[in-house]
Amino acid sequence: MAERDIGGRLIYLPAGEAGPDSESFLRDVLEGWRRAQLAQNFRPTTADRRIKLIQRMADFVGSPPWQWSPSDADEFFAHLRGVRNLSHATIRAYQSDVRLFLEYATNPSYEWNENCGRLFGTVFSQVVTEFNRATHVQTNDTKAKRRPFTLPELQQFFDLADLEPERILHSGRKGALAAWRDAVAYKTLYGWGASVERRPAPSTRRLLAQRPGPPGSTSVACYVFVTANRCALRRPSNAPS
């Protein structure tokens, strides 16, 4: 049972014969952590997702967070990685969430450890440390089909794009001019560092109009998106041309 003193602090009274209610205490800690996250301008969805992870880990371990040990964390995250096959980035994010929760629970400003020790005879402790935390050692964690090209792969791609118009021309089929245009577009986009959202996809968009800007500035190009069902004008883009 908990009450608030004159200063507004939450005071937990001695439990009766039934003993302290661990579930109620954990709910209070998680609710306090949620308020602390909202005060730090985190989104409510982010706070709720983190709270669900703590509850999920408590169910997996079979004990409340103040009884966790580093070996419990190892077993939980090994299950997520080895059995559930979650990605490296997801495991790192989950470990960061658990670490943040225990940093909050062990912060003396909130007195959770003081109340926990008086009620249950044990306190919160950090179980995600530098020894069992997944490190970020790779340059890029994305899947192979989404990662950026390496320099040798990029050179091979450009070489293939250069050979494609000649291959089509020698085959006697149409499309050599479009392939040459695509090869030029690829190199232009790479050279200017244009993002995927701003580039006109080859063979699916055509230049509708181009308004020259002042001398020394970029031009404003308007692209039209061509599909089988509609033709939609995109807003002007200050992409170099």
Explain this structure.
The chain has about 240 residues and is mostly helical. Helix content is about 45%, strand content about 10%. It has seven helices and five strands. It has helices at about 20-40, 45-60, 70-80, 90-105, 110-120, 150-170, 175-190, and strands at about 1-5, 10, 205-210, 220-225, 230-235. The strands form two sheets. The chain has a three-stranded antiparallel sheet, with no helix packed on it. A two-stranded antiparallel sheet has the order 1-2. A hairpin with a 5-residue loop joins β1 and β2 (about 10). α1 packs antiparallel against α2 (about 45-60) and α6 (about 150-170) packs antiparallel against α7 (about 175-190). It is elongated and about 90 Å long. Residues about 5-10, about 200-215 and about 215-240 have low confidence and may be disordered.
